[in-house]
């Protein structure tokens, strides 16, 4: 990933992702927030209040595309890695909650929010 794309991801977390539909097998594109993590790497999470098709799609088909559209333009191949480890989930969700000023939702998000690490593949 070149520096312009890396800087764009750090400056603006809104991207599109294209997943493969769990049931249909068809491409599904969605706007979503991609978090650049302080300790390195990237993650996607969601609120616990409703089902997430993107998460079901990534569990069934972990390969997907991140479309950078703000500050730079790029289509990046990626792989979703679910985060089942409680300590790692807590660290990432606490960071996301702190950065989005939503610390009061941490326990609910730990229990019920989807969370994947994003690994970019060359």
Task: Explain this structure.
There is one protein chain. 31% of the residues lie in helices and 34% in strands. The chain is globular and about 35 Å long. The relative contact order is 0.23. By secondary structure, it is α+β, with helices and mostly antiparallel strands.
Helices and strands in order:
Elements: H1 3-11, E1 14-20, E2 27-33, E3 35-36, E4 42-45, H2 53-60, E5 63-68, E6 74-82, H3 86-99, H4 106-112, E7 115-120
What tags apply to this protein structure?
122 residues, alpha+beta, Pnp Oxidase, Chain A, 7-stranded antiparallel sheet, 4 helices, 34% strand, globular
Within the largest sheet, what's the order of strands? 2-1-5-6-7-4-3
> Strand count, sense and closure of the main sheet?
7 strands, antiparallel
Structurally, the number of domains stands at: 1
Spatial extent as radius of gyration: 14 Å
Query: What is the CATH top level name?
Result: Mainly Beta
By CATH, the superfamily comes out as Electron Transport, Fmn-binding Protein, Chain A
At CATH level 3, the topology is Pnp Oxidase, Chain A
**Helicity, as a percent range:** 25-40%
Query: Helix-strand pattern, N to C?
Result: HEEEEHEEHHE
* Beta strands, count: 7
């Amino acid at each position: 990933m070149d520096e312009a794309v890396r800087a764009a991801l750090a400056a603006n977390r809104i991207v599109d992702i294209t997943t493969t539909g769990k049931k249909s097998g068809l491409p599904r594109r969605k706007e979503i927030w991609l978090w650049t993590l302080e300790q390195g790497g990237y993650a996607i999470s969601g609120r616990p209040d409703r089902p997430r098709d993107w998460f079901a799609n990534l569990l069934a088909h972990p390969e997907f595309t991140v479309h950078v559209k703000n500050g730079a333009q790029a289509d990046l191949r990626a792989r979703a890695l679910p985060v089942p480890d409680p300590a790692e989930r807590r660290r990432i969700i606490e960071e996301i909650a702190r950065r989005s000023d939503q610390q009061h939702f941490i326990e609910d998000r730990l229990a019920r929010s989807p969370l994947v690490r994003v690994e970019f593949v060359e």
